[in-house]
Amino acid sequence: MAEVLVLVEGNPAGGGVRKITLEALTAARALGEPSAVVAGAPGSAAEAREQLAEYGAAKVYVAESDDIENFLVAPKAEVLAQLVADRSPAAVVIPSSPEGKEVAARLAVKTGSGFLTDVTEIAPDGTATQTAFAGATIVHSRVTAGTPIYTVRGNSVTPTPAPAAAAEETVTVQLSDAAKAARVVDRVVEQKSSRPELTEAAIVVSGGRGVASAENFSVIEGLADSLGAAVGASRAAVDSGFYPHTFQVGQTGKTVSPQLYIAVGISGAIQHRAGMQTSKTIVAVNKDPEAPIFELADFGIVGDLNTVVPAATELITARK
Amino acid sequence: MNIVVLVKQVPDSGSERTLDPADNTVARGSADNVLNEIDEYALEEALQLKEAQGGEVTILTVGPDSAADAIRKGLSMGADRAVHVTDEAIHGSDAVQTSAVLAAALGQLEYDLVLCGAEATDSQMSVMPALLAERLGLPQLSGARKLTVDGGVAKVERQTDGGYWALEAPLPAIVSTWDTINEPRYPSFKGIMAAKKKPVEKKTLADLGIDPGTVGAGSATSEVLDFTGRPPKGEGVKVVDEGDGGAKLVDYLAGQKIV
Ligand SMILES: Cc1cc2nc3c(=O)[nH]c(=O)nc-3n(C[C@H](O)[C@H](O)[C@H](O)COP(=O)(O)OP(=O)(O)OC[C@H]3O[C@@H](n4cnc5c(N)ncnc54)[C@H](O)[C@@H]3O)c2cc1C
Ligand SMILES: Nc1ncnc2c1ncn2[C@@H]1O[C@H](COP(=O)(O)O)[C@@H](O)[C@H]1O
Q1: Summary mean pLDDT of chain A
Q2: Are B253 and A260 a contacting pair at CB < 8 A?
Q3: Which residues of A touch B143 (CB under 8 A)?
Q4: How much of chain A is helix, strand and coil, in % rounded to 5?
Q5: DSSP-based three-state secondary structure for A237
Q6: Mean pLDDT, to the nearest integer, of B135-141?
Q7: Of B43-57, B62-76, B218-232, which gets the smallest average pLDDT?
Q8: CATH classification of A203-318, choosing from 3.40.50.1220, 3.40.720.10, 3.30.9.10, 3.40.50.300?
């Protein structure tokens, strides 16, 4: 069976891999037999191996060096380019994080290949599905040069187990000077949250300008916690200082595609829709019956969020 | 310090956009074309650096004749001059090919820093700085929410989930900026008048020494096979809160087996 390289994205919080890696492994199986590529600091493969085996990695290429973590993006692209040259895989599949897309771009130039970003599905013939214009248009596309490179968008493929050998093979890491140009001096975590990660969460509750203050975001957090959801915010809420920028959903924020998205006090501007309109079920709470968010909503409540949301939170908590 | 700012003209992200069924490329006629919003932040950052440290700010764009409007906007914000690469053969190029054209154009300019937006609102790829860094052998400092340049070294805070990565590289380097980095200025009346006299150099593929056969849809590295509008959602349910809004919401969630 054809070999497909899958770049592993580790869990930044430590322990295992990100869910998006399992989604990439699952998507890659449409094209052939996945070989996971762990490119990271020493010890990365040991943390990842069990999950990689569970989700179908026949092989695990282990490329470990501190320099891979110490320099931005370029080292990972170099490791993959070396493997593409040595193994001639049928394709390369990469999780569609900001870093993943940049690795794909550099790999495309290095290998003379085409690449497709944010694909939501890969068919066995290599055709990929993408959405364009903030989810408003669905596109089918394919790579026509070199080794096809795909980045798979989070929450678009359901990770399914397929136990495999995950036989480890060590890759010698020899980085060029060009790959060691942009140094990562520090990684700083400013917001630690006990809630699920926004792009991976099954449920997202977002608040907008209608929430009216930073303190009042506790209304949003309360509903989110009753549902085990992540909290998001519109840009207007972020710009008004109600909630940190990390949680912005939309064109210049995060793209989310959860099972359920609850928009509270959000009007539904096209740039906000850009980040959430592929959500499976959309619920909106807004006091303006004409708010455009209702055009998207499967279920909408015209009302004041300050009464509707706390009442809902209380009822949900009572059901437990 | 000499800075080149990459700007792209895109269909306004606030209006309905589509592809052109004739060749599956972005339909530029269907929406107002504007300067990619995030590129204004890159330009603002360049202007602030110039004001503090001197030098020249050059705008570089690859795009059709209509992109002259986006260039004009950048010049009226305060850039000194512009290079506009335009050639019929470029139409239908993908990101890999466009990066080759931009790289060739950058090869004819002198710069300490290249600044660009973190994402074009039409492609939403966020890959151009990586493509150019790879082609030009420049350090890639992408996704900046903060930039400082001092003593030939650029330092960036790369915006990440829940925080940032501190990056550092010697100049020349390429930096892309998010909309968290500054607040772009509006062109002043004086700026708009001055822009009319600023030099805009037009270049073709021949000027850049690029074989037209290597760009455009004919030699693209990927192709769009077909496209459709997202199927309209079934009519949603809308209820008015009459004191029971919270209960109705929970009933709905229960019906969906969510609670
Ligand atoms: C380049 C660019 C990028 C952008 N990127 C993004 C992005 O990534 N994400 C994003 O979200 N936006 C983005 N925007 C901004 C976008 O255009 C909108 O301005 C923004 O989404 C509006 O946020 P909002 O819905 O919270 O605020 P508003 O549009 O002000 O809506 C507030 C809503 O709350 C309702 N409301 C008020 N009080 C109550 C109450 N008590 N109970 C119930 N409802 C109430 C109102 O009826 C109204 O509908 C971008 C814009 C540009 C130009
Ligand atoms: N054709 C182009 N001409 C000039 N700059 C561009 C062009 N395409 C992309 N860019 C720059 O690259 C950034 C990222 O674009 P993208 O990778 O397409 O999301 C944009 O914000 C622009 O600054």
Answers
A1: 95
A2: yes
A3: 98
A4: 30, 30, 40
A5: helix
A6: 98
A7: B218-232
A8: 3.40.50.1220
